[in-house]
Amino acid sequence: MSLVSVQGLSVVYEPNGAEPVPAVKAVSFDLDQGDFVGLVGESGSGKSTLGFALTGLSRPPARVCAGSIIFDGVDIAGLTPSQLRVQRHGGFAMVLQSGMNALNPVRSIRNHFFDIFAAHGHVAGRDREARAAELVGKVELPASVLDRFSGELSGGMRQRVSIALALSLEPRLMVFDEPTTALDVLVQHAVMDTIRELQKAERFTAVLISHDLGMVLEVTERVMVMHDGLIVEDATAAEILAAPRHPYTRMLLSHYGDPRAAVVEVPGLASRGTERATNVAQAVAGGAPVVEPVVEPVEPVVEPVETTPTVRRREGRAAREAIVVSGVSKVYPRHSRRDQPVTAVNDVSFTLEPGASMALVGASGSGKSTIAKLITGVEHPTSGTITFGDLRIDTIRRRQLKRLHTEVQMVFQDPYAALNPLHTVEYALTRPVLNYSSLRGRDARRRVLELLETVGLTPVEQFAARLPHQLSGGQRQRVVIARALASDPQVIVADEPVSMLDVSLRAGVLALLDSLRETWGVSMLYITHDLLSARLVTDQIMVLNQGSVVEEGRTATVLQNPQDDYTIRLLDAIPAPRSSAPRNPS
Amino acid sequence: MTPTGTTRPATSAVKTISRGHHDAGANPLRVILRAFLTIWSVPKARIGVALLGVFVLLAVFAPVLAPYGATDNSFDRSEDMSAAHWLGTTAAGQDVLSQIIYGARVSVFVGFVAGLLSTIIAVLIGLSWGYLRGLAGDVINFIVNLFLVIPALPLMIVIAAYLQNGGIGMIVLVVVITGWAWGARVLRSQTQSLRSRDFVTAAVFSGESPARIVFREILPNMTSLIVGSFFGASTAAILAEAGLEFLGLGDSTTVSWGTMLFWAQNSNALLTGQWVLLFAPGLCISLLATSMSLINFGVDGLSNPRLREGAQR
Fewer CB in a 10 Å sphere around the end CB: N or C, chain A? Predict the structure, then answer.
């Protein structure tokens, strides 16, 4: 008999004063003891809702409205909270994405374990110390972490602790909800390995919820694909790799590729060989007229508006310039006497040519976002110089920032945070148009609508009137891109522009950035930890490790033929379902 | 915001709110109406709004509603409740009900004006303090802390005693001087947390001036805090006004709930069995203060469009 049997389970969200939204629609499946099952879907597919229901954690406004969850012979969908609490010992546990933030910062890790032991009374007082040490040992942490507080541990260590806490009740079913999504790429890999080892050793039933089909295929034996509240495909990992049946699964799979391959292709983004892309970059760079730098380029001359969306208003503006970074370091002063000063960027030099696209890759803490701040004048470097034409960015004053930002704009990582929730799309786009051009009134409005059309948000009138929360993540990111284009910049710094988006939306946003670069001749500094996307949209690449450049060159060359260990580790951390198929034991 | 986003409400309920006008906040009437409806949708706040409405109507239509003039002392002294004088008369021979109705004018006026003024000061200082860094911030910090540590009531008494019998204007001034600091501190910490948001950085990239960033990007996101701090300050002002007048520090010839209490105490109303003289103004003061506190339950939705669409309470 199976451990868990879910029959016709439906979960509905019933917010006050709004229409109920079905999140999970009549889902049925069985889990056997010792299964390791992946649950994959994009945001809004209902996968986490299903995970919460499985572990009896559904809270209002979510409600299980139909179906049953038989766990070891008992229907847990109908249990009261106190009955559920008893069930948790030897029953089911959940590890959350933000589980690492679930630790109480003023209690030591030891106390967290002891609280659970005391609440369930299943470990005698004198054995608790040994049991706690054993549990942290299982997640590959030294026993000394028991004395520490959550603030003293790294994100990966905290997530391991929360896994150990979940293990302390000897669950037979563990649900991992995006356990590694909030972690750094390299740490992600290590934590996932731990989970895999643990599952093998302890033989509990595990459900791994993730948006990342590639990772799930690498780790689990059986995969359920969720789309719009339904399980559209339920098959072994090998079957899904070899012959995905549902079009949605095929679509998800198509977005994975190996950045090391000679030709990389995902839907919407053409294959990018080194030669073709470089030619375009050179053509754009060469085609630009060489003009003496104009001293007052802020106010462009306005010509009557009669444009197609891609016509640029470059007349009267400064000639295209390269951003030249030479010998730049950034040291953050220490906070207290015990700390060491942090060197975020160490002696980095590069030139971003007009029309070029360069990737800046590295794990978190490698200094890539700091470089973005230095280039955009948000922070000043400790040493070294950054110039853009005749403008010294490294010592720029606040008054000159506006001049810099007419030419250098930024696309932010998190589209949910980068738009003011109270302003309409039109307001967000009108402001830079008014600030950076002399267009006013109806001309300004026409320009705003033009920008929306450029980023593919049509019908433009409708999108202009919307508030950010009425847009999807991908649409928001398009608005952010449109805003960056409003000043008609020469350089766009894109800081992880797609990392917060669903896989299926990423390609669209990347393709947009890429086409803008080619048609408008904008140069782009693309900051990412994702080597696949770097391969798709950039020509040059720089790999950063702890503030220093460890490798640079043509993107295709570097990724196909990495020299530095760090680059190789980054490449290995990428889930590559197709290439990893033979390695998979199932 | 998580990529899983299980609780993200479906964006299917998209409505096109405005057609063709250039700015979400361009139509103040519409904004105010929407704010009112937001507050009205919370039951507790609805009670508060109704209560406050009654008092405002009392104050505005006092001459129509009151059976006699406020200072008309042509009646028998210290009369009990009767058909002619529903709440009796005072020791000076004035009708208590008429005094209560006229007294609402002072309390409502002081509440709104003092509350508004101290909120404006709190917003100006709190926001600039939160956005500025360096020396200017330190100086403001010092001043605000100074006002926070001075005990308010003794300061009020000292100032009121110094500005002898200045009337309502003096009381408003005293309440504002002692009342703005707490709001400024609350608004400052919210400003500091908002200023590190991406959309503020994005506004810098859009070429916005610091003043515009503070007042158009940051301020609207704190509407609920500001409205909350306004009602808090109003409550405090109403209580302070009554307190000062009860202590005899206001102009004791004006008719207000505070002076009613002052005169009732002076004429030993409790000893003579005229408890209504103390009870009625006291109840009015507490009901007015309660109405403001109840409204405060409803202001959370003001600066969150998502809450506004009625997702949760």
Answer: N
* Nearest chain B residue (CA) to A409: B205
pLDDT in tens, A112-158: 889 888 888 777 778 888 888 888 888 888 888 888 888 788 778 88
Residue B48 near residue B298 (C-beta atoms within 8 A):
yes
* A95 beta partners: A176
Q: Token pair of A474, please? A: 């991908």
By Cβ distance, the residue of B1, B4, B14 closest to A178 is B4
Residues A388 and A250 reside in one and the same domain? no
User: Considering the domain boundaries, does residue A312 fall inside one?
Assistant: no
How many residues would you count in chain B? 313
Contact A412 B201 (CB under 8 A): yes
Composition of chain B by helix, strand, coil, percent to 5: 65, 0, 30
CA distances, B145 to each of B46, B182, B233 (Å): 36, 9, 18
Residue A494 C-alpha from the chain's centroid:
13
Q: Are residues A228 and A337 in the same domain?
A: no
Does residue A297 sit within a domain? no
Residue A61 lies in a domain: no
| Domain that includes residue A226, residue range | 27-51+92-255
H-helix or E-strand containing A524? Answer: strand A523-528
Tell me what ipTM this predicted complex has. 0.72
Among the partner-chain residues B2, B22, B310, the one whose CB lies closest to the CB of A17 is: B310
Shortest Cα distance from B308 to chain A (angstroms)? 10
Check pLDDT > 60 for residue B10.
no
CB-closest option in A209, A376, A423 to B24 = A423
Chain A: nearest CA to B302, how far in angstroms? 10
Q: Which residues of A touch B23 (CB under 8 A)?
A: 424, 426-427, 430
Residue A20 lies in a domain: no
The number of folded domains in chain A is 2
Q: Do A209 and B1 touch (CB under 8 A)?
A: no
Share of chain A above pLDDT 70, in %: 87
Taking contacts as CB-CB distances below 8 angstroms, the residues of chain A near B41 are 17
CATH code where residue A428 lies = 3.40.50.300
Quick one: pLDDT at residue B120?
Answer: 94
Neighbouring C-beta atoms of residue B46, cutoff 10 Å: 16
The domain containing residue B164 runs over which residues? Answer: 29-71+83-312
Question: Among the three residues A255, A273, A295, which one is the final residue of a domain in this structure?
Answer: A255
Q: What are phi and psi of A523, to 5 degrees?
A: -90, 155
